[in-house]
Amino acid sequence: MAINLPHIEDLNRTIYIPPVGNYETFADDHHYNEKVKAWGFSTTKKQFWYKDKDHQRSVSIIGYQEYGETDDFNTIIIEFQDGNLSCIHPAFLKEMQSSNFGKVSITNTTVNHASQTTTKKQTMMMNEEKTIKPPVQEKSTKKKNEKTAKLELPEDKVHFTATVKQFALTWNHFNESNDEVIVLENVMIEQENPIEIGLAWCAHSKTLKKFELSTGDQLEFDGKIVKKKLAKGKEIDEEFIVTEQVLYKVNNPSKLKKT
What is the pTM of this model? Predict the structure, then answer.
């Protein structure tokens, strides 16, 4: 099968924004599908178009970085066919998939300007949610911050025990709709030196729905925990509102058992 490689001139026009530091990769196909769906892409696609004003290149999504005070926002890491990596805002990559994107007559003398404009727009979209917030009074948050700082979360998958506290909805700003989630309480990382998490949340995925979980169910499972605040849902019934602050998320819970 022939692969359409980009022309050498297209390679020279592309301005890359390489990721700084470590970035998250996908644990498996389920993790990949969950993330690309949240970003508003089809889960059946593995290749996407990176478009400039006068050329386009095929890329694949290989990972992401989280940012914001509670890691609520993502920057996608894409890989070009030549192996180069670049960061891009999910909404901007989604915009590039449109057949109308960049359909403007451009002369050779404006190529560099077009590339710079595209890169400037991409960078602005990646930074639009990083607006500095007014400082919070130290006295009211000092104890809470000290308690949170003491938790050193493991990077690898670990074994958990927890109890189902409630089912809720959280707002997904990428597809502009509410997602189903499960709020867990009494969350404990079971290891030689157990770590008490308290409250955490996870996506109520199709896999978890097969277990027909109910409030009060005691569970044990494997998963990876990250610091990510649960966002409130929009225009939802009172029963789906979470009144407490939930700062941690469990990604891809597996080997789940009701105890």
Answer: 0.51
pLDDT per residue as tens digits for the range 95-151: 998 888 866 533 343 334 444 545 555 555 555 544 444 444 554 445 444 444 567
Report, as an integer, the average pLDDT of 234-257: 90
For residue 58, count CB atoms less than 10 angstroms from its CB and return exposed for 0-12, middle for 13-18, buried for 19 or more. Answer: middle
Q: In this structure, which topology does domain 140-258 adopt according to CATH?
A: OB fold (Dihydrolipoamide Acetyltransferase, E2P) (2.40.50)
Residue 165 structure tokens: 């506290």
> Where do the domains of the chain lie?
8-127, 140-258
Q: What are the residues whose beta carbons fall under 8 Å from the beta carbon of 177, sequence distance 6 or more?
A: 171
Whole-angstrom Cα distance, residue 156 to residue 223? 8
Which of 155, 211, 150, 219 has the alpha carbon at shortest distance from 183? 219
Residue type, 64: Y
Neighbours of 118 (CB within 10 A): 20
**What's the rounded mean pLDDT across residues 242-246?**
90
